Target: Inclusion body protein
Amino acid sequence: MSKTINIDVMFDTVTIEEKYKGGGSASNPIGIQHADVFMVTQKAVVASGQATADLSINALVNDTIRWRSESLSGNTDQAAIIYKIVKFSGKEVTTVPAMRVSYPPTPIPDPGNPTSYQPSSTQADVFLSCEVLIQGTEGYQVWFYIVNKDPNTGKLSTFGYYYWDPTINVIG
Model:
């Protein structure tokens, strides 16, 4: 039976900006070290590297993989947005990941009564998604950019484009 593997990617955008400065482009991002990115997923699919940039997952043919991104500020002062995932080594084991936006009902707690929520609230759920097609191991690059919010005007601007490279193992 196929399953959806959700991978949450957390970026230390402040440190990335300090180390690598701005730059790169959407077609030529700057490669970064793995120390400033953290990926987590459900324990049952982790081969190794939970909560590191080197997360390696075990997937099965027909599984779906979804990547979501967030900065340590919760994408408020700075946002980290994954825009592309590309194979760079090994066997191509998935379809090309595509960006999706859905609007599921999301519980937003009532600040006056935090154990109650508004069930009809919707919030954009942005992710890249692909389907697993064949057994093998694929090294891939995750391309992302950082958007900053001006503290005086609130205006958003792109700071830089970056990438790093984790692995997918399809075991069955």
In short: The domain at 4-108+118-170 is CATH 2.60.40.3910 (Immunoglobulin-like).
